[in-house]
## 1
Amino acid sequence: MANGHFGGGDGTKENPYLVEDAQDLNAVRHNMSAYYKQVKDVNLISYGNWIPIGDHINPFLGGYDGGRHEITNLKIIALPPFDTTVSLTNLFIGLFGAVGEFGVYREIFLKNIYLENVYIHLPDMPDQHPYVNLYAGALCGRLYGDIVESCYTSGIVNIGNRANSVGGFIGVARTQAVKNCYSLCEVTSGRDLSRKYNLSVAGFIGNFRLGTITNCYYAGKVNWKLDNPDEQQQQLMSLWVGGLISGPVSTNSNDVIVVNSYYDREVVGFTHTDNGKGESRSTHEMKQQATFENWNFNTIWGIDENESYPYFIKVIRAKMKSTPFPLNFRKMRLVE
């Protein structure tokens, strides 16, 4: 175990730092422009309240390759530290908080990250913090990067009444590509309409502003609520809810392209027209290989016909026969 000193590497893209344990993963925040590769499963159980890696002042500007190893027991139950004296604070919640920065051009990526048993549960914000906006997703709160590839999340993302953009995978994103990813997180979000801010919530990406999503899916439940709803306040606030993705741009702009990506409308809990920004399917259809057009079921994806959603080949995974929620996962086995 490297215990925060990494197992090797020099942080370059060609020779990334090697992440061996929870202390190593936590140490990523000390060099935000380096490149990392995870070489062992990491259990974050010792971190009772994980501080997201990267914020709006100091975002993560490197690359993280999870190496197809698991990260388990990510838990966030309180807000990260922030300045309560400023007029507006944007907080980014997830394993990574803020990834990338608008106008910064370098290779920024997240790939092969397997997040199991995520528990993000933030209470409603008290009145003394009226100008906090939350952007939350299990993987990261805000993404301005090149690519997210071959990642998945499972667990719970439950954000209180100051949410702005919330998803089971990413909160808000502007990126070149998200491909071969999925989320099974149950998402719960709300907004106090008296604060007159927007709310975007979706199972996969809460607010997808720019980029392409290819071969991704969502199979979890989406819950949303509005506090203090009256007619005047609703006129001052916009609400976007989606199965796969949501947001004001994602539903109207050609800058957002979604290809062969789906969500389970029965599990999500509502019927929503995504206008070409994701396709709804029944639970039965989501467990049929034929549903997933042009997906690679030879080297990337596997599926147990009529029994499971698609999963990554050669990983320890849960057999999702009846429900995708992590607390009901069946016995895990190694898929050869």
## 2
Amino acid sequence: MTSKELIEHYADLKIEIGQLEHEIADLCGKGWRMETDTVVASPAHEPYQSRPIPISGFVQSPKTAKACKRLIQIYDEKLRNLYFWQNKAEEVFDRIPEGKARAILRYRYIDGLEWQDIAAKIGGNATEDSVKKYAQRILKKF
């Protein structure tokens, strides 16, 4: 992927990362049920008489746990790949020497703002067209 493509696809990376993180969180919460059991134990002090002690908690069936674990491993691998490309994109942003250029590109490709909104944020005599042309000149360098 070229530097220009990394910058242009940064927002897509963020969306996909968020989606996968949400999927992992959902998977971790599915398939649980309440179970209750008893164990036989005696107190740590006298009288040392065995008695049943109830225990309860949430468990997943082994098949469900195995399937969830496999899906989470797949999603984790995808996330590692996406984080790799996100880091590469950040390195590209770090190579841009001008703060104004970085700000414009971040507003457009990370925050997803329209050109007119970027011009308003930059202020001064910036117009929609001037900001757009400036960003295009910066991207041509990559």
## 3
Amino acid sequence: MVQSNKTDLAYIKSWYADSVGELPERAKCTESMTVDVAVIGGGMTGCSAAYHLAQAGHSIALLEAEKIGWGASGRNGGQFIFGYACDPFHLMELMGAEMTRQLWDLSLAAVQLTRNLITQHHIDCDLTNGMAHVAIKPRHELTLKKWHDLFVKNYAYSSMQWLDQSNLRDLLASTRYLSALYDANSGHLHPLKYTLGLARAAEQKGVLIFEHSPVANIKRGQLITLQLANGAQVHCRQLVLAGNAYLSQVLMPEINAKIMPVGTYIIATKPLPNATALIRNNMAIADMNFVLDYFRLTPDHRLLFGGLASYSTAPPSNVATVLLKQMKAVFPSLHNLSLNDITHCWGGNVAVTLNRMPHVGRIDDNIYFAQGFSGHGVALTGLTGQVMAEAISGTLGRFDLFSQVPHQPFPGGRRLRLPAIMLGNLFYRLRDYF
């Protein structure tokens, strides 16, 4: 088994990196330049922003400290789904019914944009339809039924289907779940292939992409100067910050305080002879626990199984052992699997906000940012990249809607926020067991 959470490699050792095929090498930024807009971060958000800005006629330089898709964009579970990590009824309390409906519509636009970009640019990323939220406990089932009534009855969302236990067991070889909320419009994909495809599409629009080009300092002003670690400078009128959980704390501390990097982890089995019997319609699945399990099949019949959560920089001990145990609890037919049958184990950080909504906004009138997708970013990152590009080009409607969502810094400041959050989350972790 290959296990990696190292950050000193071109890519961490994951099934995604091993299955992506030939990886392009892009140049470092070694010479100073001036562009209309600079983008910091080469994940889904940054690549989408760069693509849409170039499409609107701006000159763009994208600066990535490692490689395209090196962070969460190239490591996540690959599920692109409706809505947000924030419960819609909590969102109503924050924003009111009308704005919650508008934000719901934006989440559907995010899913459609993902599909459109894949189709338009022929991105080979194993796009597969279907995703289900599954209930373990009666209270999960009540929540999912409320979601179903809101989305299907109130919002007239027609691709969503309620699956009772019998219907669910026809599709999923597990007795663990009570019911599910299934959405045919959501789905899953190979996130690293998708991100690399977005980068290629951006380059075809004229975007200059530089890898291994970390930014050490930002000098704000009407003309922004980015000081790179190697001494080169990039000057720009507008700046997009798209580093999310991997954006250096020193670059923009005022927005960094409103996200918490949380580690999440995935294992991949060897190809399984009975894989298609496990998930008969090949949907992606996530349960409703606070620290949730999420899983899906790959085209070569592996089972990808993710979960756990770490609020420190170090991964939990025995990640593969714990995830394998959780996998067997879901699929008892895999009881004979051992660690020798796990080919990959990897992890990475996602950025979480206090209210679990994306944090989108602007600083000093010419610095735009999107962060804190809270584990719900495969589709939303692409949309927020597009929305920031719209705002820079003068169309503020969708950007303003996102930016009106209120966000508070995590309590405790830089020194105490980690223990404060760990104490707060202990309550929700305990609820997962009762």
